Amino acid sequence: MQITQQMMVNQFLYNITNENTTMQNLEDELSTGKVLNLPQDNPLAVSQDMSARATLSSAQGYQNTLQSALTWMNNTSSALSQIVNTLQSIQSYVMEGLNTTNQTTSDKNALSETVQQLSKTIYQELDTQQGSRYLFGGADPLQPPVTTSTNNIGYTTSGNTAASMEMQISAGISITVNVSASQVMGTASGSTTNLESTLNSTISDLQNGNITGLQTDLTNLQTGITQVVNINAELGSRIKRATAMQTQISQYVTTVQNYKGDLEDANMAKVITQFNTDQGVFTAALKMGSEILLPSLVNYLPNG
Question: Can you give the pLDDT at residue 94?
Fold first, then answer.
């Protein structure tokens, strides 16, 4: 078959065009750092990348939810620890009232006033907020769980605060993140003791020097302390579970990010080397083409 001048020109232009396109793609990779800049670059890899993006977005959403849940539960646990410490302080004052003889009215009033102030701090802890929501709000965290009252302390837990608040931490998996004020104070159904009644009676019994009543109060306070400690321990198990889940999801997110990076990210050293090689080939091809192809009338047109 005879090789004509036109065939040589066409083949030369075809090769030059392909090489120029390859160099343009390499330039895109150099400027973006990505090998997937257009869907046509690698349709299969683009599809896999989109799937990885969706998976990563979902996992990161659960990751954020877990962080919020852990912050909520850790703050709740800290408040419960403070309540236990306060109840133990009240318990020590009750023992002082029981073991101190010949108390004057002033002594009794001082002990009663001290316990009253300590009891108020418990209700202040129950009104702890995270942002605009109440940690111990139960069914409605936007409403304060503590209201004013005419009892000795001046406060009481209010409303239906026993309901749980759940957060979804993974597909099909939810965790209860809250403890309600009524659970802590023993006003919820199934509680072993009512701390609200115990605190009120303790204040009155200290003021009146009611030894028999104080003995009952001391027993009820210990039961109440155990109740709050158990609630905090159960919360601790949920914190441990959420922390383990957070670690798993964090590792999964890292794996997906690495997979996504393998699909998207360009090997810059390889791209630079390839670009320099192709640039050299392109320049050599232009020079060779100018020597092999026969001159045309264009060569004889005056410059400028």
Answer: 93
